[in-house]
Amino acid sequence: MKKPFSISRRTLLKATGAAALGLIPVSPLLVRAAGKTHPKALQAKSWAMVINAKLCPPGCRICSEACHKAHNVPVMPDPRQDVKWIWQESYNASFPYESHPYPDDANAKRTYPLLCNHCENPSCVRVCPTQATFQRADGVVMMDYHRCIGCRFCMAACPYGARSFNFKDPRPHIRQINPTYPTRTTGVVEKCNFCDERLGIGQLPICVEACPAKAILFGDLSDPASPVRQALAANVTLQRKTKLGTRPKVFYIV
Amino acid sequence: MNKNRLVALGLILFVLLFTFPVLMNLGKSVAKTQPPSMLQDQKAMQELADKLGVKNIDEFRERHKKVLAEWKDSVVRDGKRIYVTKDGREIPISLQNLASQPQYCSDCHDYAGIEKPNCWTCHVEPKGGAVK
Fold first, then answer.
1. What is the pLDDT of residues A83-138, one digit of tens each?
2. How far is B31 from chain A (nearest CA, A)?
3. By Cβ atoms counted within 10 A, which residue in A51, B28, B63, B80 is the most buried?
């Protein structure tokens, strides 16, 4: 006699499978708002920068000042709470693995503009627990300040010191607020964004434009005709701390 | 007899204490429940809805938070700075443009008894009008 409620293993599996299929909703997270890029937006497969440090007068801060003014970077009274997007360091501090105590005269005097390297293999992105920092398809390592929880893992992970934390409200320490760009708030990390907001409307990064010596070149690393690739082909260049395997995309002509 | 008086006194005290928050706010809440005048201004509200790319102010009320989150993702994640609405209109994604009357945000949030929007701790508040 057939047992009551008897069901074969096969039927049970089929039924469960069918029921499970019915439960899968179309994930609302996958549906992205319809958007369009600005008609003038600059696009690339991999943005990169070449800095001809030979053209940088020692101690020149024009690029930093232009950048910090455009991006509402505060000047904090306590240097330990410094916020910086692009700053200057000596040769030995910039290239610790390529230096020794006896640099040539020119390099001994020179200061190098340093910024986020927008690495191809960014350690900050790997450690971020909230995906607040991420790598865009065009290679820009971006920050979503709305998601940043201020854990500062990225600051520990970045070997270039390119990230700064807002220990205090930066607003009162911004000399002149640029209304077209947001400020940050207490408890978030910030860094250079390769001027995403300018690329998006067809302008080159502000440091590239501001440099009176035209020492900073910007372009698509995957395009052999780009100014970046031409400069790389014509000069001996260095990247910072290559042995760490982050594959930086900021190159220096030294 | 004495006991009954004590009980009555206790009851009165209890009722007074229990209704204290209500009694204290009697008459005070009236001002807050008056809808802000801008809500009556049909034209201004339609303009606001148009800037967000929604049909009308009711849809604005329902969806603005979601649309703003979509805007943020679109710009930050995808680099897309123009929002295309369902009916095909293209709107520049800009909080500055949307909140050109920034007091609308705080007035409406006040009226609805919702936390004040915290957009302006980072985004620079436009100088559209009186700021609360």
1. 999 999 999 999 999 989 998 998 889 999 999 999 999 999 999 999 999 999 99
2. 33
3. A51
Q: Which amino acid is at A153?
A: F
Let me know how long chain A is: 254
Closest to A232 in 3D by CA, of A243, A245, A246, A219: A219
State which H helix or E strand residue A114 sits in. Answer: strand A111-115
- Residues of A with CB below 8 A from B63's CB? none
Backbone dihedral angles phi then psi of residue A141, each to the nearest 5 degrees: -85, 110
pLDDT tens sequence across A128-165: 999 999 999 999 999 999 999 999 999 999 999 999 99
pLDDT of residue B106: 86
**Coil, strand or helix: which one is A173?**
helix
Query: In this structure, what DSSP letter does residue B122 have?
Result: T
Its CATH class, for the domain covering A47-253, is alpha beta
Residues A185, B74: C-beta atoms closer than 8 Å:
no
> Tokens at residue B109, please?
């949030």
Tell me if A148 sits within 8 A of A189, measured CB to CB.
yes
Mutate to test the interface with A, among B63, B71, B80 (most CBs of A within 10 A): B80
Alpha-carbon A82 to chain mean position: 18
| A198 phi and psi angles, rounded to 5 deg | -90, -40
Maximum Cα–Cα distance across chain B: 82
Q: Model-level pTM? A: 0.80
* A86 token code pair: 């692009």
B124 closest CB neighbour out of A32, A36, A179: A179
Cβ atoms of residues B84 and A38 within 8 Å: no
Residue A204: phi and psi, rounded to 5, are -80, 160
